[in-house]
Amino acid sequence: MTKHHTKAPLPFFGQKRNFIKAFKDALDNIPADGAGWTIVDAFGGSGLLSHVAKHTKPAARVIYNDFDGYAERLRHIPDTNRLRQTLAVVLADYPRDRHLDKPTKARVVAAIQDFNGYKDLHCLRSWLLFSSNQAGTMAELLNKHMYNCIRRTDYPDADGYLKGLEIVSQPFQTLLPQYVDEPKTLLVLDPPYVSTLQGMYANKHYFGMVQFLQLMYMVRPPFVFFSSTRSEFMDYLGFLKQHRPQEWAVFDGIASVSLIAGVAKGLGYEDNMVFKF
User: Fold this and answer.
1) Rounded Cα distance, 123 and 83, in Å
2) What InterPro entries would the database entry show (predicted)?
3) pLDDT at residue 201, rounded to an integer
């Protein structure tokens, strides 16, 4: 039997592992094993929601929109582990969680530049930067102040993680119109947060207010929508309820789950999962 993952095999900014139970509870609105249903994970990210959906509703058709190249990262786990081992040797005698001095950083940078395999920027960020500090490119990372946060063990292989999923890579503006008119199709929507830093995503296409409004135009039940107080989604729903009753009708009767999340010591925000069937 395929392993059921409760977190993404490799680091990914914004994976929804804390919402797995709530997401599975929402999926219970789909009868039995999901036969005859389609689940479209339109902003697939790490694929965790797609994986959970397929594990929970194995007969459903699950479409994972891998717009950030996560499947490619999974294919290169052996290289990622090899690079981790190389850097672990460089940092073996250096204190954990300490800022790297110039000579040590120079050795780390040289090891990364000389490495002859795949270089996973997400993993490198998690090993060398604290979570509140991000870098969108390799050049940006190598110019940052670095810390010894190297992972202590190799990543396990991810065999079966994407098993049974239909993997596509399309802008949501192209993907969603293919499915919004099908009543037995669940839209799973976890877009980048409007007005927040998006440089940590592999895909650099801008997601601003226009893109947000394009998405909202296509939302219809059944849907599961993820958001945060770092965006203005909940405020937008309040605006619709007060000023746009016809548009609010799509969301009238929604259920929601909220969790407090943190990115660093003393820094927190509220994550939301809103759904309607």
Assistant:
1) 10
2) SAM-dependent_MTases_sf
3) 46
The stretches in the chain having pLDDT less than 70 are 1-2, 132, 195-206, 230, 262-268
CB contact at 8 A, 243 and 209: no
Residue with tokens 């959906």: 53
List, for residues 122-140, the tens digit of each pLDDT value.
999 999 998 767 888 999 9
Q: Can you give the pTM of this predicted structure?
A: 0.90
Residue 28, amino acid: D
Q: How far apart are CA 43 and CA 38, in angstroms?
A: 15
Element (H, E) at 225: strand 223-228
Closest CA to 122 of 46, 207, 218, 43: 46
CATH of residue 177: 3.40.50
Q: Going edge to edge, which strands form the sheet with 267-276?
A: 166-168, 61-65, 38-41, 185-189, 223-228, 267-276, 255-264
Domain count, the chain: 1
